[in-house]
Amino acid sequence: MRSIRYREAVREAIAEEMERDDSVVLLGEEVGHYQGAYKVTEGLLERFGERRIVDTPIAEAGFAGIGIGAALVGLRPIVEFMTWNFSFVAFDQIVQNAAKIFQMSGGTVKVPIVFRGPNGAARQVAAQHSHAVEPFYASVPGLLVVAPSIPRDAKGLLKSAIRDDNPVIFLEGETLYAIRGEVPDPSADELIPLGVARVAREGSDVTVVAWGRPYHTAMEAAERLAADGIACEVIDPRTIRPLDEETIVRSVRKTHRCVVVHEHWPYGGPGAEIVDRIQREAFDDLDAPVLRVSSLDVPMPYAAHLEERVLPSVERVVEAVRRVCYR
Amino acid sequence: MATSESEPRIDGAAARPGEASAYSVEQREALVPLYRTMLLIRRFEEEAARAYAQGKIGGFLHLYIGQEAVAVGAEAALRRDDYVFQTYRDHGTALARGTSARACMAELYGKDTGCSRGLGGSMHFFDASRHFFGGYGIVGGHVALAAGAAFKAKYRGEDRVSVCFLGEGAINIGGFHEAASLAGLWKLPLVLVVENNSYAMGTPFSRSSPVEDITRKAAGYGMAGDRFEGHDVLLVRDRIAQAVARARAGEGPTLVEVLTYRFRGHSMSDPGKYRTREEVEERKRFDPVPLARARLLGWGIDESRLRALEQSVEDEVADAVRFAETSAPAREDVMRACVLAERASDAGGRA
Fold it and tell me: Is the pLDDT confidence value at B176 over 70?
């Protein structure tokens, strides 16, 4: 299988879906003439033209809302946020309109739209540009939340998200864009269904659940722990909502221990949600409390060594795994 | 509302009975169904208020009484396949679009037969079959949606127009500004109809806007602007028709300000201490519903014909109330099913 970068995988998904369906249109800041702030949309303007690759002014609430309005009447817009940090000024549009219109209309009006962009910290961009936003969106019924960690999942999940009739929050990562991975040829038209986790590494001693950037941290920790004789089973949920609870619980029933690794803050959020589901569904199978490794409970600092301290690290994952294994 | 001599003022001259009219017989006849729809809205709202007082309707209830000529006049300027978006004061718009009084009243009663199956309530009427894409409860939040529908019409090369009603209370919020900016930039086929009913909840317009004429903002958005009084349904129709024609011809959006007035409170819980009884009574001289009736009589329309029409409105509203009272309540299984649309890729996971 060929190997491509995460950003190329995202770009291929967009291009393939635009090719097959004229109702797909991309709106966002610098997506066209600038070729994408992170080069995800490079070349798309030349390929699809200004009608379908729409550069917007800096007005997230405006173009997110226009995307939603267009979705109500038959388009399938992809709205790019330059980063998810800028989605907060469009929060009302996403939460009050995109997530609610299907319900408010008594199930008669669908909202097929994808909001996408990089999520999480991106190396020393400080407090306002480093949010892991999944807790905000995953708590809202009516939204789907997807957070692919590797190129193949990014492509297959994005293609499914674009074809879905519901609003999808699609979380990429600035520090993920350059990662390479095997992705099937475009001719395969691979669709990865939302709501299905991936067992990334099998193991019998402890289950480690992680997505996004921390997934790679967890994989590295698993490698290091293997050298010490601790076999981690790493599960990438891929979709935060709906959550593939079954795959996670099945693994915990096997390993009897679990560590959840996530970049969002420790108060609540999907990390806590996963722990809650494990204690409800696998209480009798647990041999240790489920632990979480998260970002520290502070706004992101600028200084490099402090940022490194705040984000989940291989060392902290290793330490947490050792604690639940009592080793 | 503060007015100066140079500003347009509400006056009844245009609708005075017996006036010399520029309208042809056919044009005069066109007022009859508009009068009927305005009366239907009026009587619907009065019965809704009564049911609310009896505890049969809960939550918020924002009545359209006094503003009927705006929704009805605008509707008369639209094609059936044009898109319409409204605020939470949405009953009149739905009725004007042709949503049945039964479906509207049942929605207020929280019944499964309501236009949003009892899930939306007063503030969230929808009728997608009539291209009415909803009533929205967040001030300014729906303006971009209407611009989005206009975006789609332009993208598809359709000659459809999208109309967004909003209150004058929405003109300070970002949602309005961003949507208007993009609509102007992209020359979207959008008509923004600001129903300036003089009060944003309890705050008079003079205390919430630095300019008295909202359409002065149009220039900054690269839009046309038009401003007029909203008690004469034919005038509303004809002026909004000009904006609609511009949008349909690809000439871009228009910011329309219609000067109107609500006779009831912001919602049912409004004590009304921000304005005097005299002010409300004065404004009732320009009540669009009796003005239309007086004009029809002045034009020689037979009163017995109007009485029959009025009786049919009474019957329709009474039927709607009966229907709402006897309909089955909103259903839990529908509530649970109306979170996500059915998903082709629905392979697993629990929300």
Answer: yes
Owning domain of residue A271: 198-325
What is the CATH number for A250? 3.40.50.920
Active site residue A129: yes
For chain A, the distance separating the N- and C-terminal CA atoms, rounded to the nearest angstrom, is 39
Instruction: Give the residue from A239, A221, A238 showing the smallest Cα distance to A230.
Output: A221
Interface contact A51, partner B, CB < 8 A:
yes
Last residue of a domain, one of A133, A164, A188: A188
Tokens 């949309």 identify what position?
A41
CA A83 centroid distance within chain: 13
C-alpha neighbours within 13 Å on the C-beta side of residue A146: 31
Other CB atoms closer than 10 Å to residue B184's CB: what's the count? Answer: 21
Q: What is the pLDDT of residues A230-258, one digit of tens each?
A: 999 999 999 999 999 999 999 999 999 99
Residue % of chain A over a pLDDT of 70: 100
Tokens of B56: 């049969």
Mean pLDDT (chain B, rounded): 92
Which amino acid appears at position B37 of this protein?
Answer: T
Ordered domains of chain B (ranges, CATH): 26-268+276-336 (3.40.50.970)
> Would you give the distance in Å from CA B39 to the centre of its chain?
14
Q: Is the dihedral of CA B343, B345, B348, B351 positive or negative?
A: negative
Query: Any idea what the Cα angle at residue A102 is, between residues A96 and A107, rounded to 5°?
Result: 150
Could you tell me if A11 and A87 lie in one domain? yes
Residue with tokens 């490794």: A293
Show the tokens assigned to B17.
């009975």
Residues A208 and A103 in one domain: no
Joined tokens for residue A209: 């659940």
Q: Which element (helix H / strand E) includes B69? A: helix B68-76
Judge contact between B326 and A172, C-beta under 8 A: no
Give the residue from A142, A162, A188 where a domain finishes. A188
Structure-block tokens of residue B119: 């899930």
Q: Which residues of B touch A142 (CB under 8 A)?
A: 339-340
Q: What is the predicted pLDDT for the residue at B350?
A: 52
Q: What are phi and psi of B350, to 5 degrees?
A: -115, 125
Q: Are B128 and A105 an interchain contact pair (Cβ–Cβ within 8 Å)?
A: yes
Q: Out of A30, A42, A129, A319, pick the active-site residue.
A: A129
Burial of B140 (0-12, 13-18, 19+ CB in 10 A): buried
What CATH number is attached to the domain comprising A38?
A: 3.40.50.970
- Is residue A193 domain-resident? no
Q: Which of A61, A68, A244 sits opposite B348 (nearest CB)?
A: A244
| Binary contact (B117, A106; C-beta < 8 A) | yes
Amino acid at B119: L
User: Does the predicted interface ipTM exceed a cut of 0.85?
Assistant: yes
